[in-house]
Amino acid sequence: MLLFYVRHGDPIYNPDSLTPKGEEQARALAPRLAKYGLDEIYVSSSNRAQQTAKPTCEALGLTPTVLDWCKEHYAYRDFSVVDDQGHRHWLFQDEKLLPLLTSSAVQGLGREWYRHEAFASGSCERGLARVQTETDRFMASLGYRHCAEEGHYKVEKENTGRVALFAHQGFGLIFLSCLLDIPFPMICSHFDMGHSGVTVIELENLNGISIPKVLQLSNDSHLYREGLPTDYQNRIWI
To answer: How far apart are CA 237 and CA 233, in angstroms?
Structure first.
């Protein structure tokens, strides 16, 4: 199976929607994803994710399945902090916490990184448990049972399909952490996703087990193809 994780296009967060640039990015995704086809499409319950998926759904004649647990609001609630100026943002965007996330004190805790005193009073543990449970349930519905202690999946149903999930950046980093069995501090401090970026994950059947492998991370070839801006987060041209 190939799993395509797609971040929404350039957003307006209030009201929840896409900018004209984001709408162009969404339209550019359709021929890129339709070229080899998709069998199933899932979307976050947020408007910006659904609007990003709409051109692809129309091109392929598919009706998306809405997954409310992917909505970024819930992840932001559990994985955000308030800085000294009273501004709330993702913990991995906090100038004080980011060096801590890469430190041996946190990295040494592995999957229980949230037990560090800097996060113990927050809701990271609860939020991570929620996303892990829902991710495992989602993967099981596709035929893959998570064996967390072994760090792989048991293939319970052969699946050669192509599945897409349209969702978000912050949630997506947590999702990848849960899917790949890589501690969140490692993921969020070293990897990211641009607007409408396509992350491709292969789940190959290896004699009954599968170890998810990232083939592409936040690919934006659809933007190049259509001659659209390829600026990361609207601030760095790449």
So the answer is: 9
> Helix (H, G, I), strand (E, B), or coil: what is residue 86?
coil
Using the predicted structure, report yes or no on whether residue 121 has a pLDDT greater than 80. no
**φ, ψ (nearest 5 deg) of residue 127:** -65, -40
For the whole model, what pTM was predicted?
0.97
Residues of the chain with pLDDT > 70, as a percent, come to 100
Of 47, 45, 94, 54, nearest to 74 by C-alpha is 45
- Convert the pLDDT of each residue in 171-215 to its tens digit: 999 999 999 999 999 999 999 999 999 999 999 999 999 999 999
Other CB atoms within a 10 A radius of the CB of residue 128 amount to: 22
Specify the 3-state DSSP secondary structure of 208.
coil
Query: What is d(CA 183, CA 197) in angstroms, rounded to the nearest whole number?
Result: 22
Cα 46 to Cα 6, 42, 49, 51, 118, distances in angstroms: 13, 12, 6, 9, 30
Say how far apart CA 204 and CA 214 lie, in whole Å. Answer: 11
